[in-house]
Design a protein that fits this description.
The complex is a heterodimer of chains A (485) and B (412).
Chain A (H helix, E strand, L loop, with lengths): L1 E5 L5 H13 L7 E5 L28 H10 L7 H14 L10 H23 L3 E5 L2 E7 L7 H11 L5 E4 L3 E5 L4 E5 L13 H11 L7 H7 L14 H17 L7 H15 L9 H12 L25 E5 L4 H6 L6 H13 L6 E5 L6 E4 L2 E4 L4 H18 L3 E5 H9 L5 H4 L3 E4 L3 E6 L2 H5 L5 H21 L1
Parallel strand pairs in A: 1-2, 4-5, 8-9, 8-12, 12-14
Antiparallel strand pairs in A: 3-4, 5-6, 6-7, 10-11, 13-14
Helix pairs in contact in A: 2-4, 4-5, 10-13, 12-17, 13-14
Chain B lengths: L5 H10 L33 E2 L5 E2 L1 E5 L26 H13 L5 E5 L6 H18 L5 E5 L6 H10 L2 E3 L7 H7 L5 H24 L11 E7 L6 H15 L3 E6 L17 H16 L4 H5 L15 H8 L6 E2 L5 H4 L7 H11 L6 H8 L9 E2 L14 H5 L10
Parallel strand pairs in B: 3-4, 4-5, 5-6, 6-7, 7-8, 9-10
Antiparallel strand pairs in B: 1-2
Classes of the chains: A alpha/beta (485), B alpha/beta (412).
Chain lengths: 485, 412
Amino acid sequence: MRTIALAGPVDLEGWRAAARGLLAQGVPPDEAHWRVGGEPDLFAGAMEPAAPPPSPQAPAFSVPRAFMDMAALVACHADEGRFALLYRLLWRLRGDRDLLGRSTDDDVFRANAMAKTIRRERHKMEAFVRFREIADAEGALYVAWFEPEHHIVELTAPFFVRRFASMRWSILTPRVSAYWNMQDLRFGPGARQSDAPGEDRLEAHWLTYYASIFNPARLKIGAMKSEMPMRYWKNLPESALIAPLVREASRRAADMIAAQPTPEPRRAQIILDRMKKAAAQPVAAKPAAGHNALAGVREEAAGCRRCPLWANATQTVFGAGPTHADIMFVGEQPGDQEDLSGEPFVGPAGRLLDQALAEAGIDRARAYVTNAVKHFKHEPRGKRRLHKSPNAGEIQACRWWIEQELPLVQPKLVVALGATALYSLTGLRSGLLKMRGTMAASELAGEVFVTVHPSSILRAGEGRADAYADFVRDLRKAKAALARA
Amino acid sequence: MAAPDLKSRLAILADAAKYDASCASSGSNKRDSRSGGIGSTEGMGICHSYAPDGRCISLLKILLTNHCVYDCLYCVNRVSSDTPRARFTPEEVVDLTLGFYRRNYIEGLFLSSGVVKSPDHTMEQIIRVARLLRETHGFRGYIHLKTIPDADPALVQEAGLWADRLSVNVELPVEKSLAEYAPQKNAGTIRRAMGGLRLRIEEAREEKKRTRRAPQFAPAGQSTQMIVGADAASDLDILRASSTLYGSYDLKRVYYSAFSPIPGAGAKLPPVKPPLMREHRLYQADWLYRFYGFSVEDIAQGAQAGSGMLPLDMDPKLAWALANRALFPLDVNSATREQLLRVPGLGVKSVNEILRLRRLQGLRIADVTRLARSRESFKPFIVTNDWRPGATLDSAALPRKLASAPQQLSLF
């Protein structure tokens, strides 16, 4: 049996040097006995004298990075067997490089569980340290008393440096204390609770907050205890309130449920009347013709419920552009971006349309753009929503708004972009590709120029360049048709 | 009239804020105070305490004032309630936040407010608190601001410069209920506000990719809350609404808040204990479509026919699996990740560990038990090298065997 004495409970470097030596000498795990300074030793007295730590010059043995990360956590565990476990894992790793992936192996499982315990304990220390403010000659000083179950003070102190770099603070614990003077982090000997201040000027406010944020109608004590185990309570000032809050909770909840509705305070009616009056104020006289009439229709459309699509959409996306535009483009329906912003053709298809119009020599700023359907139809898919084509009923219901827009804008040329617009404007349910680049008869607009929707180009994959060129060619024809109109 | 002291106002304005379920302090960018100021956020939120209601206390969650001109029936602060009223000055909130933060009581501030004078005025006051904290005091902790949907979009834009997270509450899952219970609120306005936030958050994220100096805008995103059990909406109504919200506005979270009796309630509200188990099942279903590849219509297969309610005595994944027994048992040594995620009792972490382990070795039932760390509800649904469920999967008694006794969550 070889005994290795480590300097202290978190002496990972000492363990590492010794383990390297033991491996080099081929000492199997059950012949190595690890002792930690300051911890009780089960074998004390029955042992041969401690062997000197093996030479640190022993050949290096490469281990997976994940092992050292885990070892750094496991070393902080209070379990006396932690260094023996780490050495056993190291020993076994030589013969099985995949060992750490065997998560149900007894040693691996135990080490992972210990690492998890330490991560949790560190997290709880970050949460449950409570500073009390005192003052000395240099100003304010924040002091906490904390009793961790594992050796995590050195591991956790840097968190408090990052968070409270501009404060002087000390965290006192039974084994070791951490001090930050706004420049250096130092560790010193353990302390006693009486070394820490016993009160703080804001603690009563904190207790008031704790008591007030608690909802007595939803008592869930088990959930509280599993996240805030009782062993932490003794150093949490608010824990003194838990028993009385729990005791009174059911009575308070029952009282609320039993209480009769209370009468309204007098000022309520005054405020409500004032708000009603403000809401009833006429906004502006109803517009009569031209520009104002279009604005009026737009306002009406904002509340449209002619089909069920409004329910899952953000808003109605009405047409946009100069009131008496020469050319009017009718697309399918708003997409994701249009639905959010309320403007038509601002998403990827809209940008493509802009580009194609510029190439075809059509001034986008002088065109009126709108859609056959004015709400975005979609279905949720995980964290996104997928476009769904509107059906015939929805297109027909929304034709009402195109019928309003056409006579108010009075464009010289209407361009149907894609099958939905073609159906809305002409009633034709097929033949888009045969008709593209030509005029089709329309009940609503007399005649419309037919082409594809720009989103079909985005979906064209490898044929995208050709599809785009065809689209621009159509738009040039539309420009020529406009000149003739 | 002299203002009551700070402590009694804190009692009123914390009490008034407690019906907002969110207390998250996670998901923001990493920053700390080593280069100045005070505070840090490191990605993971920290719960500094827990109240006996089992809820995490991470942020100082208060209202700036509980005076309110709105008359939302479910709200303790509605204009027609006779609850005691109070207000803080922005400077008082700043001092309290910093004082609590220095003592490590909190991760930061969640500030909301009743609507006073006008939505714009209220929003300006909220912004002022956040700006003082960030600019005057170099505060680097977490700030969550409630935005008022009717406020000027320019003010919401400014709020996002100081806040980690913004939220707008949809309050009730269906529009009809909102009109009935919150007559001055408008579902369209609320949705437009959330749509505008998503656009701005994504724009800022793009700018940040181009230049690190671009200003941040709500780096921890947006969330919302709806109240469960105040109106007649079913679980499926609620889940359809929330899945649409997630998809439409890229929400980090939808919080479901079991309607809880309030002091001085109006006559229209159900005078009952909050439906905590129902709330719990909704969260489980929410997880299923965010992390487990379920659609709401999948979840609907496990709901009670007709009522649209999820069963209370088993989790929604188990309910789905019992309605789809023909898809089981699955061999954990060969099933796909998508399939394994549908096995009752196996969480995302367990599934990932199963996939990792099975690349090295065949799995026995003891391995799965170790990795699942749960009650063994997965046993009838899987096959391993040394385990077959036999006829249990088809047994009519299986639902009864796997269902938990109706739990009274409030027992000590």
